[in-house]
Amino acid sequence: MDRRLAASTDVVRFRVDATRCDGQGVCVLVAPELFELDRYGLSYVRPGGDELAASDPDVRARGLDADAMCPRNAIREELAPARPDPVPADPPAPAGRAFTPRLVVGGRNESLDEWRSLGGYRDHDPSGLLDLTTRAGLAGQGGAGFPTAGKWRHVIGADQPVVVANGAEREPGTKKDRYLMTRRPFLVLDGLRLAMRAVGAKLGYVCVDCDAHEAAAQMFAAEAAARAGGLLGDAEIRFQRVPTRYVAGEETALISVIEGLEPLPRIRPPYPAEVGVFGRPTLVQNIETLAQLAVVAALGADQFRAAGTPGSPGSGVFTVGPFGGEFTVSEVEFGRPLASVLEEHGLLRGARAVLVGGYAGGLLTPDQFDVALTPRALRAAGASLGTKSVQVLGPDDCPVRVVAEIVRYFGEQTASQCPPCHRGLPDMAAILHDLEKGAAGREALAELEQFMSTLSGRGVCRLPDGAARVVLSLLSRFPDAVAAHADGGCGPA
């Protein structure tokens, strides 16, 4: 079908592949309403361009012409169903409701017998697992939050699928997956077994960071014990150590590591469900997602949904603590107000801001601390559930310094595949550093905001999107502090 004849309810989204764009600017000449060149002379879609293309057939036609005429084939055009009206944020979970922890239990390592006594390692029919996971409303816990059953459906029925347990966890202030692999390895392994059974996989991988020695040892011992007990059947499970690089945890980079290649994210499509480990259809699941799956199988859908909210059932493993300080792993029922979690950990009084969702999340100010801890509510507040890291900025913590440190980290961790990322992020980190020291003027702020507002959606992975989100949250939540730094001083405490 001619894309120009697509339904009027479709949303047009143009994207520029930053790994292919060489800055010739043909797209800007053909469709200046849609495309512009950044500070490096590379093309990007102007903010609001998608909405303009969807509402104006002439603009859309010029965008398609630019797509066809780009000499490097750097422009991608996508069609997606129109978004429904925004759904109101989830309300907080009912106050005072009793909640029994399911994932974070005790301070010692759980044994195989202990997990089996709680319902672990039962037999489940593959189709029954799919139905159970659908009814439970289980979603991925690695950051994207995609429905688990929906992800499975892309792999079920494929020839020789593979399941990968993603235990690569490099981000500072995030320890949930290492906790689960260390303290509850049999729970995680049970979840991997169930995911493999659900999609018909005979081969699975457990991927653990090279420096996560205790987690790796516990998972390896758990696999040996479960196999000796005849609980893994004919499932083959291999272990893969992952280089200590942030991008190595991205699912396509993780596949590259398994294949013996550099941990570099891959351009999609094809997606891992189509072409993954050594060309085989591959399901990549976060460690906590697998642990949650095992809990669902042990409790049943109704009991699992007894906690949380209708849109975000269950609970999650959060890492809570002061920014750059000591962190505590805590299980929190989804929908619980952020303020109550801060108060429980003695972090509410004096909190200047909270970074929710990890380094790729967003800053929330005290007037937002009543937000419910669900993906929908946090998105509406300008943050994200992300890695479920809650990092508190105290009264003496400068938000400009914190964000400068985060962007510097991202700049150091870039895979150097996309120019806006591997050139842009170090440059933006330098601007933020100068801003922190009072050596950047107001003109630097305009440059920073302009570049960050155009960074999302241009990379092979989501690293630049996360950097843009946290910088823009700084600019919007702390305008007075930022302006004071730009004028050579420091913002109010």
Which features does this protein show?
493 residues, alpha/beta, Alpha-Beta Plaits, Rossmann fold, Ubiquitin-like (UB roll), 4 domains, 5-stranded mixed beta sheet, 4-stranded parallel beta sheet, 39% helix, disordered N terminus
Question: Can you tell me about this structure?
Answer:
The protein has 493 residues and is an alpha/beta fold. It has helices at residues 26-30, 49-55, 57-69, 112-117, 126-136, 148-153, 176-183, 185-199, 213-228, 251-258, 287-299, 301-304, 338-344, 375-381, 399-413, 419-422, 424-436, 442-453, 463-477, 479-486; strands at 10-16, 35-37, 43-45, 75-81, 162-167, 203-209, 236-242, 282-286, 315-322, 328-333, 353-356, 362-364, 389-393. The chain folds into four domains: 3-81, Alpha-Beta Plaits (2-Layer Sandwich); 112-304, Rossmann fold (3-Layer(aba) Sandwich); 315-393, Ubiquitin-like (UB roll) (Roll); 399-486, Up-down Bundle (de novo design (two linked rop proteins)). It has a five-stranded mixed sheet. Strands 7-6-5-8 form a four-stranded parallel sheet, with helices on both faces. β9 and β10 form a beta hairpin. α5 crosses α8 (185-199). The protein is globular. It starts with 9 loop residues before the first strand and ends in a 7-residue tail after the last helix. Mean pLDDT is 90; it is low at 1-9 and 81-88.
